[in-house]
TrEMBL record, chain B:
<comment type="subunit">
    <text>The 20S proteasome core is composed of 28 subunits that are arranged in four stacked rings, resulting in a barrel-shaped structure. The two end rings are each formed by seven alpha subunits, and the two central rings are each formed by seven beta subunits.</text>
</comment>
<comment type="similarity">
    <text>Belongs to the peptidase T1A family.</text>
</comment>
<dbReference type="InterPro" id="IPR050115">
    <property type="entry name" value="Proteasome_alpha"/>
</dbReference>
<comment type="function">
    <text>The proteasome is a multicatalytic proteinase complex which is characterized by its ability to cleave peptides with Arg, Phe, Tyr, Leu, and Glu adjacent to the leaving group at neutral or slightly basic pH. The proteasome has an ATP-dependent proteolytic activity.</text>
</comment>
<keyword id="KW-0539">Nucleus</keyword>
<keyword id="KW-0963">Cytoplasm</keyword>
<dbReference type="InterPro" id="IPR001353">
    <property type="entry name" value="Proteasome_sua/b"/>
</dbReference>
<dbReference type="GO" id="GO:0006511">
    <property type="term" value="P:ubiquitin-dependent protein catabolic process"/>
</dbReference>
<dbReference type="Pfam" id="PF10584">
    <property type="entry name" value="Proteasome_A_N"/>
</dbReference>
<keyword id="KW-0647">Proteasome</keyword>
<dbReference type="Pfam" id="PF00227">
    <property type="entry name" value="Proteasome"/>
</dbReference>
<feature type="domain" description="Proteasome alpha-type subunits">
    <location>
        <begin position="8"/>
        <end position="30"/>
    </location>
</feature>
<dbReference type="GO" id="GO:0019773">
    <property type="term" value="C:proteasome core complex, alpha-subunit complex"/>
</dbReference>
<dbReference type="GO" id="GO:0005634">
    <property type="term" value="C:nucleus"/>
</dbReference>
<protein>
    <recommendedName>
        <fullName>Proteasome subunit alpha type</fullName>
    </recommendedName>
</protein>
<dbReference type="GO" id="GO:0005737">
    <property type="term" value="C:cytoplasm"/>
</dbReference>
<dbReference type="InterPro" id="IPR023332">
    <property type="entry name" value="Proteasome_alpha-type"/>
</dbReference>
């Protein structure tokens, strides 16, 4: 595998949850090039595909931008043909077909996408599209390098039939936790809430997040004195 | 109704001076000579019925099907040249499968009708192809509800409440117009279609015929399937009784 380490990656953390009336998608906003943080505030990892279907992107930035443009182009034509916007399932299927058919060509590392949206037939739906083209319909999904740290949290915290505000708070908290524990995630948390009424976008700047790196590990402990002897393993024996 | 387009009817790529393409009209005549095919849209689904003329007593009943399933939710009944019809059905099946592969969902019936109509039309554009000599009645049940389309050899496709093609189409259309389709269930529709087909069958000109019916409705779980045998027998009996009543008058 030929990782283009000097190309921009938007690994980060992406989250998508369903609630009673629709879906909430969330992502951090850090873009990395190799070991460096290229940008911590501008990138928007949640991209529009049709009126009410958005995709969260995690992986090589160039490839994912292309996928979004390509799928959006096909869906624009399909909308004109059918006279109504495409369903979430059809959109997710197009995304995963691209992933599946180009698995060998895309040799740039792990790519994970979450397609989420609302359509009038099935309501709010989340589809996780993994590297290689697997598609899974799930009540909630996470992906990106920071996602492994919040697997347990989201499993515990997600409840069926949440309200919109609760769902959005959950997504923000999940992404903040991921930012705190993952080097490739950071910056602001962007959310997109999609339901029958429409689409609402929010951006939570880094200082407004519930948990930041420095605050997370600070715990209140009793003051104790301990003597510690430190021995360096490579110190030469006298 | 019929006219001879002397000189302008040799090729499908030739227009006549009054703007007609005679080859397509001749193709439609092939449809007019075949057994009657009827489709109706009831309030809960579609019923298709075919008057299958039996050319030989040696043919096995139930063979030579004229109604074909295209997808789980839709089927088409073919009037006209049966071999041409097979080609169209194969294409329709392939379109439905390809749509599902790309978009992950069952093809909407309207889209299927559009694609089949485009294909039929395609074969009227080139001098090295001849038009299909068959008319199609396509019935399906998707998210928008039950829908009925008719596709003519010219490639025109319209959506209908009730459609009839073939020999007895004029009489059949008159009968269909008398029915209150929006209040009828498919169960009742099956009986009515059978009655109409028996009524328009010309005993003098054609000998035996076999009645073939299919439906796609709430009762069949929105799947296209043959009408259940017991209901078919019931329909045939009702149709024969109605015929005797008419003869008695």
């Amino acid at each position: 595998m030929d990782l283009h380490l000097n190309a921009p990656y938007c690994m980060g953390t992406i989250v998508g949850v369903t609630y009673d009336d629709g879906v909430v998608l969330g992502a951090d906003s850090r873009m990395t090039i190799g070991m460096l943080v290229a940008n911590d505030s501008v990138s928007d990892k949640i991209t529009q595909l049709t009126d009410k279907v958005y995709i969260c992107r995690s992986g090589p930035a160039a490839v994912l931008e292309f996928v979004s443009d390509y799928v959006r182009n096909i869906l624009d034509q399909q909308t004109i043909q059918f006279g109504q916007p495409a369903t979430v399932k059809a959109t997710a299927n197009l995304v995963r077909l691209f992933s599946y058919k180009n698995t060998n060509a895309i040799q740039m590392g792990q790519m994970g996408m979450i397609v989420g949206g609302w359509d009038k037939y099935e309501g709010g739906q989340i589809f996780a599209v993994a590297q290689g083209g697997t598609i899974l319909k799930l009540p909630y999904a996470i992906d990106g390098s920071g996602s492994s740290g919040i697997e347990g949290f989201l499993d515990r915290a997600w409840k069926e039939g949440m309200s919109k505000d609760k769902a959005e708070k959950l997504v923000v908290k999940a992404v903040s936790l991921a930012i705190a524990s993952d080097a490739a995630s950071g910056g602001a948390v962007r959310t997109v809430t999609i339901n029958s009424d429409g689409v609402r976008k929010n951006c939570y700047p880094p200082d407004s997040l519930p948990l930041c790196d420095d605050k997370r590990r600070r715990t209140k402990t009793k003051k104790t004195t301990t003597t510690r002897t430190e021995r360096r393993i490579d110190a030469p024996k006298p | 109704m019929s006219s001879i387009g002397t000189g302008y009817d040799l090729s499908v790529t030739t227009f006549s001076p009054d703007g007609r393409v005679f080859q397509i009209e001749y193709a439609a005549k092939a449809v007019d000579n075949s057994g009657t095919v009827i489709g109706i849209k009831c309030k809960d689904g579609i019923v298709l019925g075919v008057e299958k003329l039996i050319s030989s007593k040696m043919m096995l009943p139930g063979s030579n099907r004229r109604i074909h399933a295209v997808h789980r939710h839709s089927g088409m009944a073919v009037a006209g040249l049966a071999a041409d019809g097979r080609q169209i059905v194969a294409r329709a099946k392939s379109e439905a499968a390809s749509y599902e592969r790309v978009y992950g969902e069952a093809i909407p019936v309207k889209e299927l009708a559009d694609r089949v109509a485009s294909y039929v039309h395609l074969c009227t554009l080139y001098w090295w192809l001849r038009p299909f000599g068959c008319g199609i009645i396509l019935g399906g049940y998707d998210r928008e509800g039950p829908q009925l389309y008719m596709i003519e050899p010219s490639g025109i496709s319209y959506r209908y409440f009730g459609a009839a093609i073939g020999k007895g189409r004029q009489a059949a259309k008159t009968e269909i117009e008398k029915l209150k389709l929006s209040e009828m269930t498919c169960r009742e529709g099956v009986i009515e279609v059978a009655k109409i087909i028996y009524a328009v069958h010309d005993e003098a000109k054609d000998k035996a015929f076999e009645l073939e019916m299919s439906w796609v409705c709430d009762e069949s779980n929105c799947q296209h399937q043959k009408v259940p045998d017991d209901l078919l027998e019931q329909a045939k009996a009702a149709a024969k009784a109605a015929l005797e009543e008419m003869d008695a008058d």
